[in-house]
Amino acid sequence: MPPEQTGGTPTPESATPTGGTQEGGNAGAMPVITPELQAIIDAEKAKATKKANEEAAASRLELKALKDKQKAEEEAKMAENNQFKELAERHKAELAAAQAERDALLPFKQQAEEFAKQRHEELLKKIPEAQRDLYKDFTTAQLETVAATLSATLNGQGSERQGGQQQPQRVTAPTVPFAGHNSDIQQSLLKILGG
User: Fold this and answer.
1) C-alpha to C-alpha distance for 63 and 75, rounded to whole angstroms
2) CA–CA separation, 46 vs 82, rounded Å?
């Protein structure tokens, strides 16, 4: 027997505290997330993540500024107390650490320079000997483009001319810049090709 009601409108037996009924619908089930709702959730997550990242970056900068300020104050205090010797030793230690790091990286720098020099020489050897002086000051990237272009040109005029019976075709430089607007290469090629 249902509980007695005092005034008002009668409520059905299957009514829930929120006023709905348990019959039909999705009573007790998880709410359905529509694409629009998911987009809003994702946008809010992105905002929160961006805000957290910005706050973390600001905190890191603030911490670095505080450390720098503390170091400067400490050095000023040491200078006031005539503790130049300790200050000099600290700077000497920092300098030694920086030099050690530089010395550790120096062999890699030398290897990279040697490799670049070798590659430059290899590319120059691909260019006909009579024209090498024209290209010796080109960068390695420019030389790669020139060597590829000249080798294609020379192959088109060499042994494939049926024993030299056909006249070589006049090669014109393209009007579109090579790999990233290297117009200086175009100008050099135009001079060489007589165009």
Assistant:
1) 18
2) 53
Six-digit token pair at 141? 């990237």
The H-assigned helical ranges of the chain are 35-80, 84-126, 132-135, 140-157, 183-193
CA angle (42 as vertex; 38, 43 as ends), nearest 5? 115
User: How many Cβ atoms from other residues are within 10 Å of residue 73's Cβ?
Assistant: 10
Per the listing, tokens 């505290």 go with 17
- Decide: 140 and 123 in contact? Cβ < 8 Å: yes
Residue among 120, 114, 141, 117 nearest 132 (CA): 120
What are the structure tokens assigned to 85, written together?
């010797």
> What's the pTM?
0.34
Element (DSSP H or E) covering residue 25: none
Sign of CA dihedral 62, 63, 66, 68: negative
Give the Cβ contact number of residue 66 at 10 Å: 10
pLDDT digits (tens, 9 = 90+) for 110-163: 888 899 899 889 888 888 888 888 888 888 888 888 888 887 776 655 544 444
Q: 3-state class of 21 per DSSP?
A: strand
Contacts of 169 (CB under 8 A, 6+ apart): 156, 157
Tokens (6 digits) for 21: 């009924």
